[in-house]
């Protein structure tokens, strides 16, 4: 990313989209997790439905602006596979964490009973240890992020599949799988906001390391082993910081790498002349 792009209106629109999208996501999930007055604890069903529905809505609203990542684990998986540059990833993660904190704070202020805020927090159950909860978070986030990468790959091929719905279902499945064992966070920002508001930090590291590890494993496995454009050359290009798009285009079209490289150089030169 260049300094000119950093100053552009489109970049800051994307940053605000990540902030607002994460705010809406976290407030919806936490709201579904809080029991009503006189009710017992809410199971994983309500949060699972809430997160699936709100993800579809957020992706529809902000997908074309920022990609509607609304999750630091997803952002870091895109960074690890070089689908996102370092500066944009850093700004997105900061916006996501701020949005989650604002969403949690707004919901906390609206609660009639502040004691119910304990239902916001992801915590390791007494029956499990931190390592087991970590494994659950890795598993849930892996299936979520693998779905995200699969949907994006199909969109690049101009597929008409309703991808936002698939991603929403993956979120719902993750909460249903992990809700009783780790809280089914799959999103470090979703865990960070409640931790800041309530001051509960026990085993908080589980909800960063687990989702980030699961997301990176999913992104790398899809991009370099399961996608139609996967190849040894693509993996080497990623590890050596070369242009992945050129290798990917050559793999998808069957053209030689030198031909695709020359075409890419001509396209960049043409764009540069148009901008001048």
TrEMBL record:
Compartments in which it is found: Membrane
Domain of life of the source: Eukaryota
SUPFAM superfamilies cross-referenced by the UniProt entry: Aquaporin-like
InterPro entries given in the database record: Aquaporin-like, Aquaporin_transptr, MIP, MIP_CS
GO molecular function: water channel activity
Cellular component terms (Gene Ontology): plasma membrane
Membrane topology: Multi-pass membrane protein
Signal peptide: 1-31
Transmembrane segments: 48-68, 89-111, 131-151, 163-185, 205-226
Key words of the record: Membrane, Signal, Transmembrane, Transmembrane helix, Transport
Any matching Pfam family: MIP
Entry's family note: Belongs to the MIP/aquaporin (TC 1.A.8) family.
Protein name as annotated: Aquaporin-4-like
Organism: Labrus bergylta (ballan wrasse)
């Amino acid at each position: 990313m260049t300094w000119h792009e950093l100053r552009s209106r489109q970049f800051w629109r994307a940053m605000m989209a990540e902030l607002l999208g994460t705010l809406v996501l976290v407030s919806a999930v936490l709201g579904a997790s809080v029991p009503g007055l006189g009710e017992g604890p809410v199971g994983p069903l309500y949060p699972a439905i809430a997160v699936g529905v709100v993800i579809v809505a957020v992706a529809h609203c902000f997908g074309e602006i920022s990609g509607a990542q609304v999750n630091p684990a997803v952002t870091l998986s895109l960074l690890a596979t070089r689908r996102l540059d370092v500066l944009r990833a850093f700004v997105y993660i900061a916006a996501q964490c701020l949005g989650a904190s604002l969403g949690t704070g707004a919901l906390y202020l609206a609660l009639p009973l502040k004691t119910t805020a304990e239902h916001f927090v992801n915590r390791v159950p007494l029956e499990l240890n931190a390592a087991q909860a970590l494994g659950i978070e890795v598993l849930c986030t892996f299936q979520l992020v693998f779905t995200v990468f699969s949907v994006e790959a199909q969109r690049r091929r101009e597929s008409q599949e309703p991808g936002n719905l698939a991603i929403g279902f993956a979120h719902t499945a993750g909460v249903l799988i992990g809700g009783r064992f780790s809280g089914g966070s799959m999103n470090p920002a979703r865990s960070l906001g409640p931790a800041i508001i309530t001051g509960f930090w026990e085993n908080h590291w589980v909800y960063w390391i687990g989702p980030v590890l699961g997301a990176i494993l999913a992104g790398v496995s899809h991009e370099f082993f399961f996608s139609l454009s996967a190849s040894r050359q693509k993996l080497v290009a990623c590890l050596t910081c070369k242009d992945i798009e050129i290798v990917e285009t050559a793999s998808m079209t069957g053209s030689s790498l030198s031909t695709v490289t020359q075409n890419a150089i001509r396209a960049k030169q043409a764009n540069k002349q148009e901008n001048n």
